[in-house]
Amino acid sequence: MSHRSDFTDRHIGPNQYQIQTMLLELGFKDLDSFIKSVVPNNIHIKGEIEKAIPSAISETAALAEISEIAKKNSIKKNFIGSGYYGTITPAVILRNVLENPGWYTAYTPYQPEIAQGRLEAIFAFQTAVTDLTGLDIANASMLDEATATAEAMTLARRVWQGSDEAAFVIDTNLHPHVKAVVHTRAKPLKIKVIEIDFSSTDFAGDIFAAVIAYPNSTGEVKDISKIIASVQSKSALVIVNCDLLALTLFKTPGEYGADIAVGSAQRFGVPVGYGGPHAGFLAVRTGLERSLPGRLVGQSVDTHGNLAFRLALQTREQHIRRDKATSNICTAQVLLAVIAAFYTMWHGPQGLKAIASRVQGFAYNFRGALRSSGFDVANYEIFDTVLINTEKARQIFDKAAQSGFNIRLVSNNSLSVSFDEQSTENDLSQLLTIFGSKLDSSEIPASNLARKTDFLSHPIFNTYHSETAMLRHIRTLSDRDLALDRTMIPLGSCTMKLNATSEMIPITWPEFNSIHPFGPADQAAGYTQLIKLLSDWLISITGYDAVSLQPNAGSQGEFAGLLAIRNYLDSKGESARDICLIPSSAHGTNAASAVMAGMKVIVIACDENGNVSLEDLKLKITQYRSTLAALMVTYPSTHGVFESAISQICEMIHEAGGQVYVDGANLNALVGVAKPGKFGADVSHLNLHKTFCIPHGGGGPGVGPVIARKHLAPFLPNHPANSSAGPTTGPGPVSGAPFGSASILPISWMYIRMMGGAGLTKATEVAILSANYIAKKIERLFPVLYKGQNGFIAHECIIDIRELTKNTGVTVDDIAKRLMDHGFHSPTVSFPVAGTMMIEPTESEDVRELDRFLSAMESIRAEIAEVEAKQVSIEDSPLRHAPHTIGDLVRNDWDRKYSRLIGAFPNGESFGMGRGGKYLPTVGRIDGVYGDRNLVCSCLPIEELASN
User: Fold this and answer.
1) DSSP assignment of 472-489, as one string?
2) What is the pLDDT of residues 557-574, one digit of tens each?
């Protein structure tokens, strides 16, 4: 066994001896012969990416290399604003949340009993948003401010009861990137968008909603009560695009009577990072909560009657409602929302108001000084932004840049300057010098729009102001979770693999996280280089020709890819092609994304082996030949197998005039062994947060680049603020920033650079090997539902529990909850087939961990056997009472048919639970139906949480 000195051996869990052991278990002598038996010969490649990807280098060398790239970014003082602001991440949050794997390696909380910490933190975020906006319910966050506004538009359209011809009205003074994303989203849905400045509120024709900027992009904060009244008189909904920090000083959208509020929580402790990731927000009045897109954390109760948090309403909504889903967004920006929540707790209401007042003071003093110097500045109320009208705009802009200050060039005759938490007295003085002015202190005038209502009055926002208290609160919540830093998370389709520490280090460097997305391009030379290198590598890995890194989630990548197909067909005069064929096994987001792109969904059946039914596909192609736009197919399939007919399927679609979209969710089973761009696909999205190691962060952030063949390249996303972000012929932006969540791209760059082409290939091969090792071992306990050629699976396997459920009453939920007692997160439950579990080990877990999981499943199978033999009823089995909490185990009235020891230590583990230590959930099994019927989405009463 060789000394493990390079990164590849550190990333890949099994060592060579363990790899050989697994191969022998499966009847093979080496990885090459094994992979040839699994991957269809007509798509298998070998050695291709090794030629295209640089050879692997050490972690130390990679950090040195990316440090040189980072130094090419120029750090300037940013006063650009436009939705992206300087902020100070409290060190206690930076070190213990953003840099803590207990937070960034967690998965979306589908198993709430082992996610109470992050659920409570998200709940606090929702509460902060509702308090600050004055509305009743907020979701768990959106992808960014611009997409939140677009989602609000489609929400309003869904609940609109009037004419389909009704228009959507947007404020001309919204930030330009917000308007651009709204236009991109509206076009395929055939929504008419009207831009006005609201100087007149006499709307011609029907409107279903209007979005008002408050403050607007020029800095003005105005009384919007008359606008709102006028919009609502048309039975239309009012959306207010607002700034959370400003709302500590100004009247809330809720007080005005608005229906929806949207915006960004970026300035609550999350660095600008060249545009993302950041937590957008969307809040609604009562009555709209069941149309709310994205995730929503609410309260329920566990089996012991204790209050507990869980995802409500939207959990797996896309997989249930598919093309009828309210949105294609299946997650949230959880890690960033958590940071914003802790930032809010750290500062509390008084601290936030002090920051806001200081920012506003800078703006008024700056504007007053300019006015005294003869500059043309408006006299309206402002928060942080000053608009200056001057014929010398370009000269002043250039002078500021030469002095190390980035300000916004609004037009050839106007500039704006936006202040933020990082602004200082010295900055103000230097800015005034640039403008040829001197400080002339100005009083902030009394405002009729001042906020008079209390906010953030709950103890959670008024308790953790010392570092000791905050540190312990963060640790307390983290201890309630089960993340990848404790145990394997064998979630099929979700690819929970190692997010190496070295990959994470660069994201907190100021050279990456302090660059403004709308700053001069020459200040982002390092980002330009990194994006080019990463893009080229992704193209080489996939066999495509062009890529856009802009989509900031897999769902957005899907939308962008389908939009490229839609616009390509339109450019050929084939607008009538609007049918998207989607297999019944597909990810639910596929259908929702197709609808967003203006397509109609037709479902293709799967055969008894879980493959796309060629017979049904032929029938549907014949039926829809003249209107066929695309086929969306996941490869390897959502059923966890390599379908040998994939090339034939692609040819069938192309012959009928359609395009092939291959969902890249399972790309981690293809890297180095097959290229979708070569076996017939036209476009894909890639989940960098799965295949290329960007952490899931409890359900976000994600990055979902869209990558395509040459003929679709002209139709990939572009951006009005950066001509290098996409082709001029593109459909517009799909996210707020030109390069989406750019600040986490260094993670994937580091991963590829340290793995090299050979390492990436080996990672794929070991992931497939580990999955087949588990499948063979577990098959004697539970039947494996689907297999591919030669009886093998791809990178994940589905075990079928349905017959056991029929015979014993034991459900997949019982198994999932009992696994918590073993210290494991459950595999994926009831997807893609109800009553099954999908297991994916990834390449990161060594054989000891795989065997520990198998041992847990064997113990659970033995408990099921006791129910089968009628030695115990399911109601009396530890399976039904799982998970076991400390409170449950130590209660005086223990009356179970099994011992406390069996409850806590299911298969006789030692009290130390081996190398992982014993994990105990803090709540028992949560009642999901109760939570959905009794939707509670605001903080608990003070007395309930006062002891925390």
Assistant:
1) HHHHHHHHTB--TTTS--
2) 999 999 999 999 999 999
Q: Which distant-in-sequence residues (6+ apart) come within 8 Å of 411 by Cβ?
A: 393
Closest by CA position to 562, among listed 710, 667, 670, 715: 715
- Matching CATH number, 786-933, of 3.90.1150, 3.90.176, 3.30.300, 1.20.58: 3.90.1150
CA distance 80 to 64: 31
**d(C-alpha 132, C-alpha 575), whole Å:** 45
| H or E, element range at 108 | none
Structure tokens at 836: 């099954």
**Numbered ranges of CATH 3.40.640.10 in the chain:** 107-332, 510-753
Rg of the chain, C-alpha, whole Å: 28
Query: How would you label 502-540 residue by residue, b for 16+ Cβ within 10 Å and e otherwise?
Result: bbbbbbbbebbbbbbbbbeeebbebbbbbbebbbebbbb
Eight-class DSSP state of 70: H
Contacts of 754 (CB under 8 A, 6+ apart): 7, 8, 11, 56, 57, 58, 59, 62, 500, 502, 503
What average pLDDT does the structure give for the chain? 94
Q: Are 833 and 496 in contact (CB under 8 A)?
A: no
Burial class (CB in 10 A: 0-12, 13-18, 19+), 908: exposed
Of 18, 555, 569, the C-alpha closest to 294 is 555
| Class of the domain covering 107-332 | alpha beta
Q: What's residue 151's pLDDT?
A: 96
Distance CA 856, CA 139 (A): 36
Indicate the pTM of the whole model: 0.96
pLDDT digits (tens, 9 = 90+) for 513-526: 999 999 999 999 99
Q: For residue 142, what are the β-bridge partners? A: 280
Length of the chain: 948
pLDDT tens digits along 223-268? 999 999 999 999 999 999 999 999 999 999 999 999 999 999 999 9
Distance CA 308, CA 927 (A): 9
Q: Which two tokens stand for residue 630?
A: 């695309």
Q: What single-letter DSSP state applies at residue 299? A: E
Q: What is the largest CA-CA distance in the chain?
A: 91
Joined together, the tokens standing for residue 405 give: 């200050």
Q: Is the pLDDT of residue 73 over 70?
A: yes
Q: Would the pLDDT of 821 be above 80?
A: yes
Q: Running DSSP on this structure, what letter comes out for residue 14?
A: S
Looking at residue 324, its pLDDT comes to 64
Whose CA is closest to 105, among 691, 498, 474, 476? 498
pLDDT for the residue 902: 95
**DSSP single-letter state for residue 523:** G
| Whole-number Å distance between alpha carbons of 893 and 896 | 9
510-753: what CATH class?
alpha beta
Residue with tokens 């005294």: 372
Residue 914 has pLDDT above 70, yes or no: no
Instruction: Answer whether residue 323 shows pLDDT above 80.
Output: no
Sign of CA dihedral 627, 628, 630, 633: positive
941 has pLDDT over 50: no
Q: Are 270 and 336 in contact (CB under 8 A)?
A: yes
Q: Give yes or no for residue 1 having a pLDDT over 50.
A: no
Burial of 255 (0-12, 13-18, 19+ CB in 10 A): middle
Q: Which residues contact 255 (CB under 8 A, 6 or more apart)?
A: 134, 453
In sequence order, what are the residues at sequence separation of 6 or more whose Cβ sits closer than 8 angstroms to the Cβ of residue 895?
none
Nearest to 940 by CA among 459, 530, 486, 450: 459
How high is the pLDDT of residue 316?
46
Cβ-based neighbours of 47, under 8 Å, separated by 6 or more = none
pLDDT digits over 620-637, tens only?
999 999 999 999 999 999
Q: What is the rounded CA–CA span in Å between residue 269 and residue 662?
A: 37
